[in-house]
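Hey all, sorry for the wall of text incoming. These are the two entities for the joint prediction.
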Amino acid sequence: MTNQEKRKNIAILFGGRSVEHEISIITGLQLIKAIDTEKYCPIPVYIAPNGKWYLGDKLLDRNFYKNMPKSLSSVHEVVLLPIPDIGGLAVLQANANALPNPESYKGKDIIAIDLYFPAFHGSYGEDGCIQGLFELANIPYVGSDVLSSSIGMSKYHCKKLVEAHGISVLPSILISKEEIQKNLGHNLANVRSKILKTKDFDKFPLFIKPATLGSSIGIAKAIDEPSLDAALVQAAKYDTAVIIEPCLDNKIEINVSVLDQGEITASVVEIPVAAAGGELTYEDKYMRGGSKKSGDLSQSGMANLARIIDPQDLDPSIKSLAQENAVKAYKAIGCSAAVVRIDFMLDLNSNTLYFNEINLLPGSLAFYLWVKSNPQMLYTDMITKLIEQAEARHILKLSTLREIGFKALFK
Amino acid sequence: MNTIKIGKSDGYPLIMLHGWGQSLQSLKPLAELLGNYCQVHLIDLPGFGQSPLPEADWNTLQYAEAIFDYAQSQGLKQFDILGHSFGGSIAIRLASQHEKAINRLVLIGARGLPRQSKFTQKLYFSFVKYLSKLVKLTDKILNCQIYEKYFIAKFGSRDYKNASPGRMRNILVKTVTENTIASAQKILKPTLLLWGEDDTETPIYMAQKYHELIKNSKLIILPAKDHFPFNDVGSHLCAHYILNFLSADNQKKQFQIQAEAKHNATV
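and here's what came out:
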């Protein structure tokens, strides 16, 4: 291979302590299959459900995950230390039969990494947690930083922020898990009446969601008081807070992706299609299509969802409003060096477009939208752009002054 | 021949040829990505997909002539050609026979070079060959079908089993042993070789050999990809390299034309 020595080592991280663990594996493996291998050397790094980090070529094979934990003996256990300037992943336990072979790391207990590309979805990977570790280690990484990731992850706080920037949102109520648990003995009467007494929340149906989760996990529609109680308890199982929203009776979902390619740009819009009409479920998003041929990754994950990309019968002014508001929201939330997907809700009765949520690390990195955008962008080129933006951001950050001294101690 | 056109009608024409046992469908996802820049012609090779059987037991030269005739019928004076596997060896034949018609070549896991087999493998192959003759003879004498029923199931290659008995099997036997070295050596046009590092059907030593044989060639080896590097999201990676190759060459050409014009102007 030409330029083999000059290639940058890009750690692609996936898995993680999240209910969207398996979706992240799909996103990560897909990314590795599409990355420009002339320029970059992709290094798969897997965070197991128990939080341990693994590295090795065996992670590229889907069967690896079927044969866990036995297969873990075929990869190295590594970790990223929160100490600046180490320059890579520390090897905790090298396995003789794992590839890349430890021989090539002879005498080193650090595997050199130039840049980190998180492909996580959900908790600890998309919400600012791992980004915090990247910051501590002072390394370049793709995607939004700590603050924007954590704001974007909280549906409630995110809406409040974009609303302040003049983007329409549906009203919402935030209820903590603590409050739900405290009232369990009283049939949730207090919580229920608090919700139903709030303006815009006095009639069913209502939507109940975990405050930070994606992939439609734990989402339920309440049509009466008993189903509201059940939905609250259900959503609180997944999260420490629950968000309640009014339910539009005549609406469509409109998604658009935003990418930092030097300039912040919006993709074409899409309308995802639910199997039975109504809301998209986790099954709609990831399980539909039945048994998939193994290895056919372009048809996996979010890229597999039934959808209408750039629908011809959608009002062009709605399309451009969605694109405009998506770019505005991306900036308001403070995202950088990222590709995100922003989901809107179009109320067909009033023709109002509401910001619904932002996905800071969308499934399949929303590449299926960019390939249909004008001009077309290949997944390979999108990955390169993200890496370059991440490098530029890191250089910019290094230029900020951080003087640390002990003068005050010895005055 | 069954063909479909994809992409920009005013783009530079690109003819895409699929591999053995495949059809134009196998290259369609890649074609759709290239279609934003090229006028893609996807062809079901005779005997595959929805195209009828060729009228005789063709070799790759005859296949190449059929493709050339198609290009003529479409009014394509010059075009780019992409060939995968079996389609790759046809593309090589076409480029060596009709040099002027071909602008640039893209070869993905192209067939046409002899396999470097170990002594034990060679021994096994000749054993199978003689056994097949013996079984066929037995069938003839005893009027039975041991060959068709048992021999092929046990010893036939995947391609052979998939080929319908008769013409397509004859063509397979004929083309699989063809050697395109002399044709490849004749190619002077810019050529991109895209090869999966883990390709077991046309291993990468074949890519390196083609790289030596074709003077103006660029080789890109794709790590962790097999004989079908354009499958799944690999289509994006392949399209990236193909479009880079095609556009870089376009720019170079543009530059040459400008330089020549300048030169002519000063003279």
